[in-house]
Amino acid sequence: MFSHLRNHISVKRLQALSSQTRARRKRPEYWGSRASINQGDDHAGIVHEVGGGVTEFRVGDRVAAMHEGKQPGGSYAEYGVSWAYTTFRLPPSTSFQEGAAIPFAALTAACALYAKLNLPAPWLPVPETQRIPLVIWGASSAVGSYAVQLAQRSNIHPLICVAGRAQEHVEKLIDRSKGDAVVDYRKGRDEVGKAIRASLNGARLRFAFDAVSEMGSYQTICDVLDHQLGKITLIIPAQSYSDIPKTIEKSVTTVASVHEDLKDFGYVFTRYISKGLEEGWFKAHPQEVRPGGLEGVEEGLKDLKSGKASAVKYVYRISDTPGVVAES
Q: What is the spatial distance between Cα 314 and Cα 142, in angstroms, rounded to a whole number?
């Protein structure tokens, strides 16, 4: 079916996922997608076929993967394809449901921290004697919480995590003994700025990842970010961010870059995430299984776009789709 595609893997999907990032950002407008394309990206299942040049995977392997956006073979289907470099093995302790909640958001977080902000890699952590404050706005989202987990692995502290109604989820990820803090964005610009400054304890803020990039988030960050050495990365590519001071280094993080200039980066981090799952220091974002399998995708996307999901990823069990025979 797909074996003619070099360096690709065909997966019989058991779980697919809707990305809140893309749903909330009005994906066709922001990502240039055509309406006829199957837009699903995250999936998990069993390797069905391997294309030429693939040596790392075998038929029957349990995997999770991120499909390349705007290309045929998206994840809202029983079978589909992904590049080998954005596919990774799932350890026995990680379910397909959990696996489907990882690739897109985790790779986005990795791109933000390490490709855009150039923070120390998690396999070369910051010495205990050094402090690197980092603001993560939207820390309760999947992208944000994966960023927190990776930053912890890099020993980056204090982590100043901005969240709203799902602050309890973020509290489980941080280390208060190292100065980490959770700030409630609902308190307003001035109060949030004061809380961030208090958490800095006199240090300069040089790094920020805005995993929301709207509703005043980056403007509030820039109130505190060092205007000479500060770096901020954001996630909505269609905005100009012209109100960010010119002396602050700004960038936009898009996960599509792992299919462009960051292919090796994507390869390394998918394998590293698999290692983290196996060792237990990397955890999947909480999931909610939506009813109806693939028939539930439309309603799920509507709920994501309207902001109904809080600290959960929407997952679709393929076998729940009417007419699909369940895997024995």
A: 11
One-character DSSP codes across 212-269: S--TTHHHHHHHHS-TTT-EEEES-TT---TTS-TTSEEEE--GGGGGTTTHHHHHHH
Q: Which of 218, 238, 256 is the endpoint of a domain?
A: 256
Residue 92 sits in a domain of what CATH number? 3.90.180.10
Q: What is the pLDDT of residues 101-160, one digit of tens each?
A: 999 999 999 999 999 999 999 999 999 999 999 999 999 999 999 999 999 999 999 999
* CA gap 59, 254 in Å, rounded: 31
- Whether the Cβ atoms of residue 67 and residue 80 lie closer than 8 Å to each other: yes
Q: Which helix (H) or strand (E) holds 190?
A: helix 189-200
Taking Cα atoms as reference points, which of 242, 211, 187, 63 lies closest to residue 138? 211
Q: Total structural domains in the chain?
A: 2
Residue 167 burial (CB count, 10 A): 17
